[in-house]
Write a structure and sequence with these properties.
Oligomer: single chain
Shape: globular
Structural class: alpha+beta
Distance between the termini: 66 Å
Number of strands: 30
Strand content: 15-25%
Largest sheet: 7 strands, mixed
Radius of gyration: 27 Å
Helix content: 25-40%
Length: 763
């Protein structure tokens, strides 16, 4: 039994099991990482800023009912996680007996399923059903969709769900899934990415006319310095600590889904289409979203499987993927081949840029989704950094017999910036210029205060001073420390400040309470309190009559869409939601005024606020690399990021996010690589013993510096979503540092030992 948090008067917050009492408990509660407060009472704040308890508003006995109210601020949410009190999707316990479904994955990369031996499996004790295309219910999507589970015998990639077993216990389900025999008619598969693939198609072209292409080609030929370089990045896989999990329940009111996803509304709309239901009959509840980074921002097959299994058995069904299963069906960043051509004059000024990108996708993917959905550098993210008179860009997509990719951790900025900023570094060497100086010469309007270029120039200069760039020997491969070669590198970084439209729905219930629906995954108590007060003032009622619902609470997922949090657990803000809440409440207030004249008018109103075009945020990253002369091992003892953070209110939290993002960038540069077996058509390294991830131990000194100012920086509301800015330039900075240390240019990630061993200086 957990103790509820109490009020501001110093009463001790409840402790989880196994957490000892402390003699200095008061000082511990007031520590800086605790937000300097003492756990402020259960419930949410009212309009005056005080907390008030509230009864459980749900039928499911979820986390809110157990604790008697809302979580108590951001720190309280983290306290719940580290003490085991947070409730994730797999921990939901329905009132009816829970059944378990385990998928059976294809062992071929292309072909058809001839038959599934279901009769033998059904004789096992505790078995409820075996699902496959021969008996599964129909879905309202095309058969070639990645979510059209069991709608066709077609196998589009290795690891695809071709069958599933449903049983009374998880152990029985696992045993039965291992015994299922699937007969295939295998066909030759194609999983090799190449630019000249016969099925390749042009997703977009920046200058489709021949004149634009020819102008760039001519400028590159006539340039004083011209480079033609190719860079490759591998597949990057999602590996969150929380496995993808879903619990599905069919009720008289429709389908209820418990899922760890940041985009509840998007999942709701997809499921409504799949099961031909109105969106109002689908509820997606996200108690604690622990999965994100593109792996759960959209509907994944395990969610559809849970809903199908629950529909067939009439029981609540849980599906929890194993680590190995996640590598095929939860998305990954597509491998990329990027050709970058740069031309510059004698002073190092860019005169032309050509950027041709080739990426892979699945044969089940929707071509209309565009290349950005696959995690490649969408248009034109990675070329916003510099002023180039002539540029021509193309993006080619190759459909292969592979799982569908998605964006990962950042959008396409990391691989795009890696290629561009590595090429810029090579251009600086070819022009005989310092890498920072060449970048500064090519920033548009760098001297105009408040411009984007001025902010980026400030990041480069401030980072150079703090990192000690002035003492850098420009010659590569000359600095040694014992058996280690030492070098430093720099890269600029860019990340889009983009928001999705925000909508709010306000409804008057029979109990006289106004429910404001926002499909946001998370919101701080003070922000929820502010929106409660705003709605109450517009409606002319007391705050006690207003309830803010978000993340699927109480059916909020049947409400309006919201932008998915990049990390799956990001706070939402008053700025984004204030205007749609005001407009929806005004519309409902008008309905209330006409209620007597029009009693049949439904008392629900919706409003939308379009998001402004936020442009890009900028930064600069500096790296020190050490390369062992004997083994080729690469270590990165120092990483520094300098970012235009504007007036970010919580600078300490933002710095922590940026340092974590840079560590992820280090991981993607030196460690991570999805290795595809061409013979079998699947990824080989499907666990954390073979798919390597960096930790903070791999980067002992990671620092982030935030520059204030009035430039085009993220406002406090957007700062949390822009930690991808900390990742985007890291790979290029490290690769450039490795080149400075060794004189060896590595254009293929990850930077492995075999790229350096045998090419390093001897003696």
């Amino acid at each position: 039994m957990h103790t509820d948090r109490t009020d501001r008067r110093g009463h001790r917050p409840g402790r989880g099991a196994g957490i000892p009492e402390r003699a200095d408990d008061a000082r511990w509660r007031d520590a800086p990482w605790n937000g300097g407060h003492r756990g402020e009472g259960a419930g949410r704040r009212d309009g005056n800023g005080w907390h008030r308890g509230e009864p459980d508003g749900g039928r499911d006995g979820d986390r809110r009912g157990e604790r008697g109210g809302e979580r108590d601020g951001e720190w309280d949410g983290e306290w719940d996680k580290v003490t085991g009190r947070a409730r994730f999707a797999a921990e939901y316990s329905p009132r009816a007996a829970l059944a378990y479904a385990v998928p059976v994955q294809a062992t071929i990369a292309r072909g058809e399923v001839r038959n599934v031996d279901s009769e033998t499996i059904l004789t096992l004790p505790g078995m409820l059903a075996v699902l496959w295309h021969g008996n599964a219910p129909g879905l309202g999507v095309p058969e070639d969709s990645d979510l059209a589970l069991f709608q066709s015998p077609k196998v589009a990639y290795r690891g695809q769900f071709v069958a599933a077993v449903v049983a009374e216990t998880l152990e029985t389900a696992y045993e039965a899934a291992a015994r299922v025999r699937v007969d295939y008619a295998a066909e030759p598969h194609d999983v090799v990415l190449r630019a000249d693939h016969p099925r390749a198609y042009r997703a977009w072209e920046d200058a489709p006319g021949e004149d634009g292409r020819e102008a760039v080609e001519r400028a590159l030929r006539e340039a004083r310095v011209s480079l033609d370089l190719t860079y490759t990045t591998p597949a990057y896989h999602h590996n969150p600590l929380e496995p993808h999990s879903t619990v599905a329940v069919w009720e008289d009111q429709g389908l209820v889904i418990y899922d760890s996803c940041p985009g509840a509304a998007a999942v709701r709309d997809t499921l409504a289409e799949l099961f031909t239901l109105p969106p109002s009959l689908v509820r997606v509840i996200t108690p604690d979203a622990g999965v994100g980074y593109g792996g759960a921002a959209t509907t994944r097959p395990q969610t559809v499987l849970a809903a199908i299994a629950a529909q067939v058995t009439g029981r609540p069904v849980q599906v929890t993927l194993t680590r190995r299963q996640m590598f095929a069906v939860t998305g990954y960043r597509t491998p990329l081949v990027q050709r970058v051509r740069l031309g510059a004059d004698g002073r190092g000024r860019l005169v032309a840029l050509g950027h041709d990108v080739v990426e892979q996708t699945s044969t089940t993917a929707d071509p209309a989704a565009g290349p950005g959905a696959a995690g490649g550098p969408g248009r034109p993210v990675c070329e916003v950094l510099y002023d180039v008179p002539l540029r021509h860009r193309t993006h080619t997509v190759v459909p292969l017999d592979v799982p569908a990719p998605s964006w990962s951790r950042t959008q396409g900025d990391l691989p795009g910036v890696f290629a561009l900023e590595s090429a810029i570094d090579e251009l600086a060497a070819a022009c005989g210029l310092d890498p920072i100086e060449l970048r500064l010469r090519n920033l548009p309007e760098a001297d105009r205060p408040g411009s984007a270029a001025a902010g980026l120039a400030a990041c480069l200069r401030a980072g150079a001073e703090r990192f000690g760039w002035a003492g850098r020997d420009p010659a590569p491969g000359v600095r040694r420390d014992g058996r280690w070669l030492v070098g430093t590198g720099v890269a600029a970084a860019a990340y889009p400040v983009a928001q999705s439209p925000a909508e709010a729905t306000v409804r008057l219930d029979a109990d006289g309470r106004f429910r404001v629906r926002l499909a946001a995954p998370r919101m701080r108590p003070e922000e929820r309190a502010a929106l409660t007060t705003i709605a109450a003032v517009v409606l002319g009622v007391t705050p006690e009559r207003v309830e803010i619902e978000l993340g699927g609470e109480g059916g909020a997922a049947a409400g309006p869409p919201a932008p998915a949090a990049a990390g799956g657990d990001e706070p939402e803000d008053v700025v984004r939601w204030g205007m749609p809440v005001v407009r929806a409440c005004e519309a409902l207030a008008a309905m209330l005024g006409e209620r007597e004249a029009h009693p049949g008018v439904p008392l629900e109103a919706r409003a939308r606020a379009d998001a402004p075009d936020g442009g890009h945020a900028f930064g600069a990253q500096f790296a020190e690399a050490r390369v062992n002369l004997d083994t080729g091992e690469v270590r990165v003892p120092r990483l520094l990021g300098v970012f235009t953070a504007g007036s970010a209110a919580d600078a300490d939290a933002l710095r922590a996010r940026f340092t974590g993002a840079m560590t992820l960038g280090l991981s993607m540069t030196l460690c991570e690589e999805g290795e595809l077996d061409e013979r079998w058509g699947g990824f080989l390294n499907q666990d954390l013993s073979h798919y390597l991830l960096a930790t903070f131990a791999d980067a002992p000194d990671v620092a982030a510096l935030l520059l204030p100012g009035d430039g085009p920086a993220p406002d406090p509301a957007e700062a949390d979503r822009l930690t991808g800015l900390g990742t985007s330039g890291t790979a290029a900075a490290i690769a450039n540092a490795v080149h400075h240390a060794t004189g060896i240019r590595v254009r293929d990630l990850p930077i492995r030992l075999d790229a350096l061993v045998g090419r390093l200086p001897t003696g």
